[in-house]
Amino acid sequence: MPAPPVLSPQWIRCSRLEALPANGGAITTENLTGRAGVRIAFDIVREISGEPNQATITVYNLARDTRARLEGLRGLLAPVPVKWSLGGLLASDASRGYTGPDAISAEKDPPPGTELPASAPAASKLFGYAYVRFYAGYGGKVGQICEGTMLVPKSTRVDATTWATVLKFGDGALGAAKAQANLSFPVGTEILTVLRHLLRLLGVGTGNLSAETWARVLGQGIKRSSNPYVVSSKLAWPYTPSGASAWRDLETLLRLSNVGWVIDMGQFYLLEADGYLLGEVVDLGRPLKVEDLGGASWRGTFLLNKSVRPGIRVTLDKTGFAGPYIARRVQHTGDTHGGAFHSIVDFVPIDPLGLGLDFL
Fold first, then answer.
1. Cα-flanking dihedrals φ and ψ of residue 202, to 5°?
2. What is the pLDDT of residues 120-169, one digit of tens each?
3. In degrees rounded to 5, what are phi and psi of residue 326?
4. SS3 301
5. Which DSSP string do the residues of 322-337 spell out, in sequence order?
């Protein structure tokens, strides 16, 4: 029987999982040796959708103690929801049968109007939820490609010799599930003031938000609005919390302001009117394949690119695709015991002439 192919060191698939319990410390599992190490599989979606992005990490055959520690982490206990809501993600430790010494029998949710730390891990810790980061790469060099509040940890026995521990977590999920506004603002209040208040409720970083960035993207939104007399830098009507969630209030406020946005890696970002983030342009290289999704949208499959993220401008090495384009959706997939790690990117053209292409 021929010997299995030996990978060149720079192509050895590597990954690292970090789970941060609310009571401190870290649970780390990594594979820097490819097939010789623990099997870690991942499926991560980061997109501009108005919903928290989600990731699923599966680790096989962990030591019993490590598996028990991960299963004991407290999560928001959500299935993969179609719509996130204040009520749809709530459960107590008792509901999942966890009775450890740190079990919480009733949710200690923040009262409406509670402003959380501007650090997603700190906000999760404050209310007892674990936070997860995941890294992947080649040749012993890994880079972070996702993070979020734990949704649900679960281990299942696949067969007589295999255990699979699955961690699902959501980027911005804590705020989407728990944050509720209770403060009203009168007519004439700067919308930026309301926006900053809502972000403090959501417990995410402010990313690229500044007075200068807000003024620029709002000005672009006004120019492209079908009703520019309604879009303004100040409230044209009193702001009253919806009572649903601060996430929904944020979504409504920015939609009415004709401004695009995304929460990614625990940070809030405003998008330019064409739907992209100012800054670097990432070269995705030569695609393994490109699919036409219709409506001036394509899906390219590339070897893992740790730098690509939703909203960033990208180029690719393929005839007929001059670029740059806007990455609207990024999916990272891989398995340390499988084939190559991939980044699957949905991308659209930029609208340089201001024709009003609806990509926001």
1. -80, -15
2. 999 998 888 999 999 999 988 999 999 999 998 888 899 989 999 999 99
3. -110, 125
4. strand
5. ---EEEEEEEEEEETT
> How many CB atoms are closer than 10 A to CB 219?
13
Separation CA 223–CA 185 (nearest Å): 25
Q: Read off the pLDDT band of 222 (50, 70, 90).
A: confident
- Cα separation, 274 vs 260, whole angstroms: 9
pLDDT of residue 48: 95
Tokens describing residue 227? 């009703």
Gap between the terminal Cα atoms of the chain: 55
The CA-atom distances, in angstroms, between 301 and each of 116, 176, 274 are 38, 30, 23
Helix axes 191-202, 211-224, angle to 10 degrees: 120
> What is this structure's pTM?
0.87
pLDDT in tens, 48-99: 988 999 999 999 999 999 998 998 888 886 333 333 333 333 334 444 454 5
| Cβ–Cβ < 8 Å for 57, 167 | yes
Alpha carbon distance 37, 23 (integer Å):
29
- 201: exposed, middle or buried (C-beta count within 10 Å: 0-12, 13-18, 19+)? buried
Separation of alpha carbons 139 and 136, rounded Å = 10
Spatial contact of 307 and 315, defined as CB atoms under 8 Å apart: no
